[in-house]
Amino acid sequence: MGLREEKKRATRTAIADVALGLFLERGFDRVTVADVARAVPVSVNTVFNYFPTKEDLFFDRQDEVVQRLPAAIRARAAGESVAAAARRAFLAEIDREDPTLGLQPGIAEFWRVIDESPALQARLRHLRDRTESALAEALRAVTGTGADDPMPRVAAALLAAADATLHAEVRRRVRAGDDPTSIRDHLRQMAGLTFDAVERGLPI
């Protein structure tokens, strides 16, 4: 990475970090893009150059989140089912305490802000739709199915729903104040049951 790219990445990270701090302090709907720009400090146009919408400021890792499942499917081992690949990827996220899982210290405030904002809840649903679409494309590519074959879309819907259910359980337990270790143990058990059920229903 060149110096220019490093500077751009550092600026993007600084903007996102400041924005998240303001959102956690005041709530998403009570913070404007101008507030973020003043606090960095950069121009409003600079903020929009990096983040097209205010929701993008909050979900600054959304592309990484959307590509989690498609990446797991593309990296599946020979003979491994898509459900097994998704299960393996999810368990690996638990083991390495991946930030996208949402179990890091202080994360309860992150979920609180989402729960208080209809705009963020709508964006979260949009991210799930994007994940499902990207997953369907990955499944179609790895299975070589034609454009009129519905199975990749069906499989994507089931896998995305399973994944969303597991992450919703994280959110529910974090908001309830459960201990992160107990949440991880529960998630391992729940992931086994969830992906077993999906695998029994999918022929790929």
From TrEMBL:
List, alphabetically, the Pfam families matched: TetR_N (PF00440)
Question: What is the residue range of the signal peptide feature?
Answer: none
Q: What is this protein called?
A: TetR family transcriptional regulator
Q: Which UniProt keywords apply?
A: DNA-binding, Transcription, Transcription regulation
Q: Which InterPro entries does the record associate with it?
A: Homeodomain-like_sf, HTH-type_TetR-like_transc_reg, HTH_TetR
Superkingdom, according to UniProt? Bacteria
User: Which residue intervals are the DNA-binding region?
Assistant: 32-51
Q: Where is the HTH tetR-type domain?
A: 9-69
Q: By its UniProt entry, which PANTHER family does this protein fall under?
A: HTH-TYPE TRANSCRIPTIONAL REGULATOR BETI, HTH-TYPE TRANSCRIPTIONAL REGULATOR RUTR
Q: Which organism is it from?
A: Actinoplanes oblitus
Q: Do the record's keywords include DNA-binding? A: yes
